[in-house]
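As a warm-up, study this chain.
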Amino acid sequence: MAVADTGSLTAAGRKLGMSQPTVGRRIRALEDHFGTPLLRREDGALIPTRFGQSMLDHIRRMQEEASAIDRATATLENSLAGVVRISATEGIGTAWLPIVMQEFRTEHPDILIDLGIGFRQYNLAQREADIAIRWAGTGDQNSLIGRKVATATFGLYASAEYLARKGRPQSLEDLAEHDGVIATLNDNKPLWILEQKQHPHQMPGRITFQSNSIWAYSEAINSGYGIGALPVTSDTRPDANIERILPNISKQEDIYLVAHEDLRRSARIRAVFDFLVEAFAQDAAWFLNGGTSVYDLEAKQNASALKTHAAQ
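Now compare it with the structure written out below.
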């Protein structure tokens, strides 16, 4: 199934956590067992033969049943202990979530967090993650429970150094004379402010930096490569050297919290899910308008209290 999904032995090996020769040996063993080829090469990719496709249909049902058994074991776990896997994108997952979940662990120290960062959609049915934080929608997998938890506002930003060097644009048309920084995510569409018809507004005339990493992308804006689109929460970073430009230009994206319906019956996963719903509600104004996160303020207050206690 992995070879059919990825199109190569090497990619299947990466997905399965094993070497390419091992994958090849196992495929050959299956073909020897059935006495017929399972895969053929077409346009440089491995695809199932007719028999391989019929076998693959059975294998996918086997996978679905195995995943159902795995989820069923989770629903029997009523203790507030064990690992909960969360998937999130850079930004929320790297800057906000670790601070928030540390507060959760003061109440539930035996629940351990396994955080997967990336823009690909982790398969919740196959328990690649227990809970996912997703942009724009819940995804198209079956039997998912999704809840809109916040709306984030994006604006256009540039570093103070860049604006001193190139000037501050006064209109969208002025962007044609400026440098730009672009992030390309899973769909390869540029991260930019979109019009109502989902077409990008006027983009900078020259793109000086492009990355599929939000972390690298935001650092490039901060370092003066050019103008880019960022959430309005970005300028609250202690090392932020950026200023918002054209403040009347913005876009909003909804954030969803998603879990498989079976796993919502697990005590520890439900505890994390419910906590995150409340955490997003507490910080809803920050995601929408920027300013100071409730959790940044609490972290600073706690750190101050610890210093005072240590001094005493």
